[in-house]
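hey team, just a heads up i'm posting the complex here instead of the shared drive bc the drive is being weird again. everything in one block, sequence lines first with there labels, then the predicted structure for the whole assembly after. its two chains so it's a bit long, scroll down
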Amino acid sequence: MEMERLGELWRRLLFLLQGSRFNREMEEELRFHLKSKTELNRESGMGADEARYAAIRRIGNTALLKERSREAWGWSAIDHFMQDVKFAIRELSRNPLFAIVVILTLAFGIGVNTAIFSAVNALLLNPYPFPQPDRIVSVEARHISGKNSSTGYQDFLDWQRQNAVFESMAIVPWTGAYTLTGQGEPQRITGGATTPEFLRVLGIQPVLGRFFTTAEDQPGAPPVAVLTYEAWRKRFGADPGVLGRTLTLDGQQFTVIGVLPRGFVFPGIETCEGFIALRENSSLGRTQHQYSVIARLKPGVSIEQAQSDMSTIASRLEQQYPATNTGWGVKVQPLRAALAEEARTPVLAMFSAVGFVLLLACVNVSGLLLARASGRAKEIAIRAALGAGRGRIVRLMLTETALLGLSGGAAGVLLAFWIMEGLRKTAPRVFALDSTLHLNFTVLLFTLLVSLLTGIVSGVVPAWSASGADPNSVLKNEGNTWSRARTRNRLMSCLVASEVALSVILLAGAGLLVRSFITAMHVDTGLRADRVLTFGLDLPHGKYSSESQAAAFYRDLLDRLQNSPGIEAVAGISTLPMTGGMQGGGFQVEGRPKAADWVDMMVQYNHSTPGYFRTMGIPILRGRDFDERDTGTSPPVAIVNDTLARQYFPGEDPIGHRYQDAYDGKWRTIVGVVGSVKSQQPMNPPVPGVFCPHAQSPSRWMWITARARGDAAQLIETARTAVHNLDRDLPLLKVRTMREVISDSLSVPRLLMQFLAVFAIFALLLDAIGIYGIVDHSVRQRTHEMGIRVAMGASSGKVVGQVLRGGTLPTAVGVLLGLPAALAASGILRAVLYGISPRDLTVFLAVPVVLLLVALGASLLPALRAAKMDPIVALRCE
Amino acid sequence: MLILRSLDRNGPMHGYGIAQHIQQISDTVLQVEEGSLYPALQRMLIKGWVKAEWGLSENNRRACYYRLTPAGQKQATAEVAEFTRVMEAITRVIQPA
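-- predicted structure starts here --
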């Protein structure tokens, strides 16, 4: 029995492979049959023709016979499908312009969806490539005020010692730039400092050697380093004997003890080439909150259990160290949730926007197909007359649209590649897309499904509408009957209306974001950003081992720049405004009681050189700027901003008061008050801040700001030359004008805005095409009617008005439907909007106006054509 | 069954031949429709009961000859036996008592 089945299957397969032979042979066989029959008939005394006709009559429909014989083999489904595909390709290549427009429309819709889905996939869905990723959690210190969510080193050590729920716990590598010497030219490389259990938390092992141990974590232990696989290949040519060799980083010798597995990535530390032990200075105390902590749950321990254990530890620490730990709790959450927190809103907003874009593309393609269907009515009618069932015709047309969908999908993947390249370059860090953003299997599967679905969704309405026509009337009337054209017109109007409704949502979103961005860009940031160039410098430890060397370098550099042509003023600052950088510390005023909660006393610490306020256009409200009298040996001084002055010295003059520096412990006398500058984003209020003279606490890291006499960008070469004349190995970091710095601080809303603006333009374009399509179609259908009207004396104005109404009416309906939907959807954007409400009146008034204008514009061409029509020609055309 | 039996009795035949044969033997009582004959032959090909070979006909034309395979022979015997059994039963029922 089994053997028979197998033989049967084999014969069927053989048949499939010899598909064309079957047709030939069957034909020959039937021909033979026919001839034999004819001969027999003649023998029985019929005439030649009569004999042949009798034979033909006897055999009947040979095509059907062949078809039925073929069907016996059970491959008819595939057969029909292949036929449909071949036919669809032929049909599409006959009208390439149509095919290209459709494919491009779909490609855009599918492309942006693929790109954004890959971001969603990378950010919110795709598990990290570590064993049991759901057991990796983020553990954060959280202050009740919500002000800080970083963790202090001492707290980390206590957590690690006291918890009973984690298998291992580690600090996420603290990245920094190091100067690598001893391998040709000195190079700047990025490394991460972490704790010994980092790899154990992630559940991975080095491929070579080992990770460092708790003993090597201690200050004074011999320095060791672990390389990434890529750095091992790049710097040591994948030499297996690399263990035991040394690396000189910032002048210190590190012994290589291990190599990480290939392709190791962890969000936020993608650029690290290696890892060294984090040797924290325990004198930092408990108020230095700067680290992120990850941990691996013990098997069977839930997040809730971990949370409750950690909360117990936190409250114990609060009692133990009331001065530093009061108000500090702990938050345990899955690592993914912690990383995605910031990006969730923009990414989800984007994902819903691309969803609308795809829907819009589908509706548009439906409209195009429907318009084309009027040209194909006859062909479809002939098929129906020849016996093709409605199902068969629908299937044929859906094959065609599915094919269009797939081609659109293929083109869309290319587009997605391009978009993702762009995202990789411009996406802000919060998107965390650097390493994880790529087209993978999940994404491609998503694209495939979306493409097929898109094709089918856009094809259903036109296919159903076309197949429903009565073939009799179509064929008899040589074209379209009145009622059918009207039905199709109504259908097209519905499609245009839904297209417009979708566009309203996209346009409103784009409009809100654009307005919010413009508002934010024009907010008073407290400084004059025009004509200012900024760049960062980071002097390597090895070359500038003492702080006085660093101070001398910066003094020299600023002198040289000050004397360069084209520079009006130049100065250095430790934290550039609007970069979100924050060097915080307590602010203890002399003669006042110590605050119970130091977090409430946090102010922003800055170090600046003389002339900084003048360079940045920040007003000096009282007192003086730093000058050359403020040196390392002169009395410690400071300048505060007016936000601090208002907060700490209400109704008092801060000048002359003293406070204790949280970093070096010196008591500083306030000598000036300056205007406040926004430190995070233009829309966030300024924070209280103090400035100390750079000469009194020199650092290796510094931002240089230079105000140009002319265009700021022209200063780049001057600056580069000045730096390289002093140290030709020193790279200029993040060279930007201050305007760009402000714009970059808005990079998330800016990216969202750019995306939605592109979508909105796409939507308008599709609307224009759709509206033009329907108006043009109706003018063509009604040529005859219009001819009569004109002949009866209708003015051309009346005709134009009638045609224009055909385009604007569905638009108006669409606007009315779209507005409530847009109002509901715009709520998603609340979190990223600044200065305007998600129901901004201007935007919601402008959108309908723009759409109606587009509708008028798109209808104008066909309307004018209708008006110029000669009634005689029009009447004759039927 | 009729086709299998015809092939069993006469050896390889072409489609036309089978139709003629059944018609003649049954004194034109049984007319084989071409519309059913060829699909039926295809089904037998799939089952492996017959094999198709191209050969020359009596009047020197190329024609496709169908030959019974051993499996086909077995099937023919089985079908005839089954038919005869049913036929006898029917005959017994309709015979006047």
